[in-house]
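Page 42, continued from yesterday. The earlier attempt failed because a stray header line got pasted into the input along with the sequence. Redoing it now with the clean sequence only.
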Amino acid sequence: MDTTSESPTDQTPADALPAEQPPAEPESTAEPLLAPRDGLPPTIETSTALVAYADALAGGSGPVAVDAERASGYRYGQSAYLVQMRRAGAGTGLIDPVPLPDLSVVQAAIADEEWVLHAANQDLPCLAEIGLAPARLFDTELAARLAGLPRVGLGAVVESLLGLSLQKGHSAADWSTRPLPEDWLVYAALDVEVLVELRDELARILAEQGKTEWARQEFEAILAAGPPAAKVDPWRKTSGMHGLRSRRQLGMLRSLWQARDDLARRRDIAPGRVLPDSAIVSAVQADPKTEGALLELPVFRGRANRKLVTTWFGALTRGRELPENDLPLHSRPGDGPPPVNRWADRDAAAAARLKAARAGLAEVSEHWSVPVENLLSPDLVRRLMWTPPRPADAATVTETLRAGGAREWQIGLTGELLTEAITAS
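This time it went through. Structure tokens are written below.
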């Protein structure tokens, strides 16, 4: 008798069935990478030790693996609190930039070598602060994107390509802590342990896919971009401010945000640890008219903020008393196109161009296994479709893309389809 079938009258009601469980993730067969192969080196904290390691780096061979640890969420800025390096013939170095804020001796030792970083844009600014800047670069995260890997985090890429699993758990730690715990140092050393091997495997894959030149152009673009530009109106990133309706409220928020930022900078504390965004927004919404009323709000009742009540109330008062002409606009004037969800109403032809361009880019992305955002900057696509160049021929589109920062490999893959999207409208 077939016991797998049921008559309709015998079936259990659907809402009485147990919830379907997602398929279990296959158990990883990767080999855990638990300790540096050469043992954990002592942290480099003196000029003598730094010079010795710089000499070792200069005498080594091949690319240099580089990483840095910051104290995001704990300290005000994005400074490096540990720099890890590894090179064949030199071994791993764990450099403490707190007592050694100038690493130019290391820079001189490896200035002309290729540096290997994962997600280089995250670390290059803090490395530059201490005198470290590569002339040649291989970014393993970006290479993984170009190679079409489904997951591009360092641990995922190391596991999929090298069959090794990295330790987890300390990436969000307070790396300004001193002394640094040994297990943190092991974690940091392992981040550069196999970075050069990973670089070699990704380079092999890119060569097989015919993407070596693409990667070279991308790495050069990272170096040519230089340090990130200062953010305009950073206070507009305050979480929860969408609930504020008037320009007066925006003025109060900006004033309170600036007071918090000044205090956080002076104390070298992450702004959110001085005063959460939610407290700033709630204070603006409550609009307290006295210090006592401010102290009745959550967060402000705490001992630390009771001591700072004059600072916070003074900032709110300054924002409340700003002249009308000095109040911030609801949105920052920009030179770019409007939000895409408004295109159909404001310019139907532009909306049609963008739709055609996105469809073409999606096909190219799938064909080459490259994420659309790496195929071409989405902002550049929107600008091109909103305000097409004239004449809208291939040569003009090419020059517009080049002026917008597109690399030659990107132009070669997308120029023709973007020209067609423009001319078809």
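Notes: Confidence is low (pLDDT under 50) at residues 1-18.
Reminder to self: strip header lines before submitting.
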